[in-house]
TrEMBL record:
Compartmental location: Cell outer membrane
Species of provenance: Niastella vici
Gene Ontology cellular-component terms listed: cell outer membrane
Protein name as it appears in the record: OmpA-like domain-containing protein
GO MF terms, alphabetically ordered: calcium ion binding
Length: 293
């Protein structure tokens, strides 16, 4: 018997053919038969079976005949299918969990300094001196420096102090001449990197500026602070104000009336040179005096 579909379908038609035996009046007769029908699935192991058969008797004692049958058919024993494990010819590579040797939360494959913990901002590298330059790119990792010098402090360049003849200015002093002299001296006012602390190299210029202010009567002195474009806008404005205020405090400590002094921080908004070169940035980091009569 040949079924058209698997036993899982609801209605499964079939056909069949083959030899058989017919019991007729207590005698057995050989025959050939063909059959067709369908089975109706009631459950996974019980089916309603209907069949229509045509029998061709091989003996002349009986005639050919047609039979019809209907009944229930069930599966008593069902062989369990063995689970087959199919292995592909492709090798299975066990994936090892990513390692993080320095335990900084950045896996070693993405960590530029896998043996030293550091923030993700610096790709896992530390910044020992806190100058904003990670140690793996810092030539002086234990000493704060600036980007222009690859993390090292800017070299101290001994510039000749500007020659200001105070006696000459006393005789022919004007607001403009005093202001020009003060701004010339201001070129030698220096601060520590990313700080508002005056360096000792600024002392000569500041002393001379105090002397000039005591020569020329004035109503107001505005001290302007300027920076290069390194860092954020907010930080540059803050730093320029703090540096201008450091100059103000020095002048007050030297006897200049605080009420006649004011400060203004411009950050990097008023450059006088190209910020793409170290020389240009150095010129943009400056203090400017505006004197009012």
């Amino acid at each position: 018997m040949r079924r058209f579909f698997a036993d899982t379908v609801l209605i499964n038609p079939f056909i069949g053919a083959g030899p058989g035996m017919i019991l007729y009046e207590k005698n057995l007769y050989a025959s050939l038969h063909v059959a067709t029908g369908f089975q109706l699935r009631i459950s996974n192991s019980v089916f309603l079976h209907t069949q229509l058969s045509y029998h061709v008797n091989l003996s002349s004692s009986i005639n050919n005949n047609v039979t019809a049958s209907i009944g229930l058919m069930g599966i008593i024993l069902q062989r369990k299918k063995k689970n087959k494990t199919i292995l592909s010819n492709q090798a299975v590579t066990a994936q090892q969990a990513p390692t993080d040797i320095d335990r900084d939360g950045i896996v070693d494959g993405e960590d530029d300094c896998p043996n030293d913990p550091g923030p993700r901002t610096f790709c896992g590298c530390p910044d020992t001196d806190g100058d904003g330059i990670p140690d793996n790119k810092d030539k002086c990792p234990k000493e704060p420096g600036i980007i222009e010098y690859i993390g090292c402090p800017a070299p101290t360049v001994k510039m000749p102090a500007p020659v200001i003849k105070i006696d000459t200015l006393t005789k022919t002093s004007t607001i403009d001449s005093i202001t020009t002299a003060m701004n010339k001296l201001a070129e030698q006012i220096y601060f520590e990197t990313d700080k508002a602390t005056l360096t000792p190299a600024s002392t000569h210029s500041l002393i001379t500026i105090v002397a000039l202010l005591k020569i020329q009567p004035f109503s107001l002195l505005q001290i302007e602070g300027h920076t290069d474009n390194t860092g954020t806008i907010e930080r540059n404005v803050q730093l320029s104000e703090e540096r201008a205020n450091s100059v103000l405090e020095y002048l007050v400590s030297a006897g200049i009336d605080r009420k006649k002094l004011t400060i203004k921080g411009f950050g990097a908004t008023m450059p006088v040179a190209d910020n793409t070169t170290p020389e240009g940035r150095a010129k943009n980091r400056r203090t400017v005096f505006v004197l009012y009569k």
